[in-house]
Amino acid sequence: MKALIIDDEKHVREGLILLANWENVGITCILEAADGLEAKKLIQQHKPEIIFTDMHMPKCDGIQLIKWLYTSECTSKIIAVSGYDDFKYMKNAITYGIFDYLLKPININDLNETLSKAVKEWKEQNKVRLSNKIHDQAIWDHQLSNVLDKPNPPLIIVDYIKEKYDVNIVQELCTIGLFSIKMYLSKHNQEDTRSIISSILTICNDKLSKYKKGIAFRNINKEDEIVLLLWQLNEEHYVINQIILQIKQETNINCFIALGEPALQLVDTYQSAREIYKTHNLMEVDFQSIVTKQQTNDSFQTTQLFDYTEEIKWAMQSGSMEQLDKILKKIFTTFQKNNCFTMEQLELWESQFNILKEHWLKEYEINKSDHIYIGTDYWNENGSFNFNKFQEEKRREFYDLLTKMHHVHFRKEKSSVQLIEEYIKNNFQKDITLSDIAERFYLSREYISRKFKKQFNKTITDYITQLRIEKSKELLKNPHLKVYEVGSSVGYKNDKYFIKVFKKIEGITPREYADSTRTTTNTLNS
């Protein structure tokens, strides 16, 4: 926000600057004027939200300035600064809707309280103004957007422009300039973006209206596109440069405008502007404000992400970030060697990556509601493209997806092995074979063997044997069970084989184990 202090006495201006808590209310720019005439120029140029003005000044006094502000429909909050003998002036000032007044000498508490209230009221009223303006602009945008894709523009638009601007857009040679706000959609929230768009449209329409050159609107069919519809094609480059300069001054945004070839059919000049916009090299070191067909590279071949699908797929499935990084580096190097990266290439990358991502999410049964990183922060604050940021963002997108895929893959592997273990524990007394398990779980024998050994550090056969022997040791404590009955209960139909396996693991026969446990029990009971 901006504030303007108007007083012919320098020490008064300096005092206000020192006493007010500007930062607390969000005011970052403070302007000064010594009289009303100087103030008018600053107000027209900077449009300050808060104005402090003295009543007695040379050339143009406070009342004259306030009257001028009143008739110019200024939205600034005006705070008059007066002496005790200025009440006649103050009465007139109040008639013209000043926000408040302060008496000299200025009390610091009164100053900051009044400033805070003025800023608060301006913000509240501006929110309403912006809402109304957006509503009116939205209707206008909707109607005007229809001229871009139809050979014959709607009659209502033709008649409106003819009546308001005395121009027949179906008979006069016109051209279209395109300005993308794609970079701001990713860096700002909806409210901030709306405010930026509103400011840009206001600047464009003010300049176009001043020079009677055309109108500006937002294309509702492409949310990132602002359109300049230009007629009376002479000095249009000068007007566009004036627009670009003011956008830079007021919003600190560097923008380029793709200027289509003049045509009688608006749809033709729009398509021309779209083509220029898409093929403009974003990596150009010398920033071009106005881009025409002569400055585009028609010979540039776009790089297809799909051409690397198999390589990327294997890297993703292996979970190797190092391998994935090699592939991405190869792609990025191609762009750097060509020293060319266009909006068309950017849109193609985004589109093909989203298709690949959707396919992998479905294949790995990853819920779309899970947070998947979307990397679009590859624009500088001033709106220019940053290729280094682009590389970082795209790597991060791939890394995030790879991590989630690998996590799900590992979880599935672990889950299947745990299910197999559970099945074995419940059925170890049966004649279980590796083939039975593979058939039951729809997995290959080799895969099961490898994963089971990795998880439990032993083969399935050894694991089953261990379970059987541990269970048999519990049963052998029962004096009423014979050795062959115990062997049969744990899955050994041949008692001799059971005895052989038991002795190999425990170092003694089942009978000897049973006798030793019974002896221990008797000793404890005696």
Automatic annotation (TrEMBL):
Where the record annotates domain HTH araC/xylS-type, the positions are 418-516
**One Pfam family named in its UniProt record:** HTH_18
Q: Where 4-aspartylphosphate occurs along the chain?
A: 54
One biological process term from GO is: phosphorelay signal transduction system
Signal sequence coordinates: none
Where is this gene product found? Cytoplasm
A molecular function annotated in GO for this UniProt entry is: DNA-binding transcription factor activity
The record's section on SUPFAM superfamilies has: CheY-like, Homeodomain-like
Give every Response regulatory domain span.
2-119
Give me the Gene Ontology terms describing cellular component.
Answer: cytoplasm
Q: What InterPro entries does UniProt report for this protein, alphabetically? A: CheY-like_superfamily, Homeodomain-like_sf, HptR, HTH_AraC, HTH_AraC-typ_CS, Sig_transdc_resp-reg_receiver, Tscrpt_reg_AraC-type_HTH
Q: Any idea what this protein is called?
A: Response regulator
State whether keyword DNA-binding applies.
Answer: yes
Keywords, sorted A to Z:
Cytoplasm, DNA-binding, Phosphoprotein, Transcription, Transcription regulation, Two-component regulatory system
Q: This protein's superkingdom?
A: Bacteria
